[in-house]
Fold:
Amino acid sequence: MMGSVQLVINILNSVALNHNQDESDLVSKGFIGQSVLLPCTSSRSSAVDVFWRDKDDKVLLDIKNDKPDPGSRDPKFKGRVSSFPEEYQKGNFSIITGKLELGDDGNYECTIFIGTGPETI
Structure:
């Protein structure tokens, strides 16, 4: 029987608001060939842009004005990343990364850009 390889994926959540950042770190674990949920939520859900990047600054997904932009996705992640557009209005910008590969371990960043008003998250 073949053993499974577990990947450790760190998610760095950043909220950029008037040049201030609030960061919190989460850890998700996945296995080669399987899927992992990478959480990213905000208390604000309107007028936001969300940018998911990996450790090498490759694009997993950009969400602009509540619409995913799959055309911006790095070829490494094409067909492997999905999101929940019906949840954007609730502030849920989490993604699922599937068909995990050995090189997928490491840090991932979800950056949320919120309008120009003095909002607190």
